[in-house]
Amino acid sequence: MNNDSSAIESAAPALSSETGARMSRGGLVFGFLGVLAFSFTLPFTRIAVEQIDPLFIGAGRAVVAAVLSLVVLAVSRQRLPRGAQWMRLAVVAVGVVAGFPLLTSFALQTVPAAHGAVVIGLLPAATAIAAVIRAKERPSIAFWIASGAGVLAVIAFIALAGGGLEGLHPSDLLLLGAVVLAAIGYAEGALLSRELGSWQTICWALVVGLPIMIPLTAVSVSTGGWPQADTAHWLAFGYLALVSMFLGFFAWYRGLAIGPIAQVSQIQLVQPVLTIVWSALIVGERLDLLVWLGALVVVACAATAVRARVASASIRAR
Fold first, then answer.
1. pLDDT value of position 316
2. Is the pLDDT confidence value at 74 over 80?
């Protein structure tokens, strides 16, 4: 009896380790699927804004996704969020339902998708910073140095691409604002996903944003009329509504909920590179050395920042 008990006790840590490794791999798989879905967002936004009003793109895609969310929530009979969860969902909505789509839609009227991808490359480090602030962690000095280097790298890229900071384009400010808002939405959404569920979180956030996004869509239609776009541009809009705004978050928040959040968030580091590749293949943008160099430097800084955060979190856990 004692031998059997000892065997069970010795096997327990191994089983626990195996289960943890399986969950970690699951988080990485879902995280990558989310990032892959998001990597097409800027190229398809660039296509859509050629014939569709950016306000309609940013708000209208959220309305379409919110209607789908209402159907899914009703059919699956999900329980309503409670108390402070509504306010936290509002934070997610401001970040990823309204802020990021609207700001990037307006920005990509005047800058290439590949250019936007370099600036958006700050998102992994920004998400880590938002999570640090939200969870009241104390990351290492290396984390802050790498994050600061990433910001400086983006500023340098903008300056070189635009002929100097005195010619800073408003679109770059919109992209930086999109990064900040998305990072906040990602961090809060990751925490909420562990309470409400991954796809439930984005569905409820879309519903919370609906009272704002419907009037914004109406304003676009009333001022410019219904968009007169061809099939390709409507398909681009459809991708933004169905995948970027809806299904992509199912996978992304699922991956973050499985976690570890710090580890899964590192997958975002491949997003700028994927976006640049899609920009060349789908949109036909010509990529110069500065774009690739800027992307590599920003990704390297973000990778260093996120890994420093992971390392500091591991040390505290011990």
1. 53
2. yes
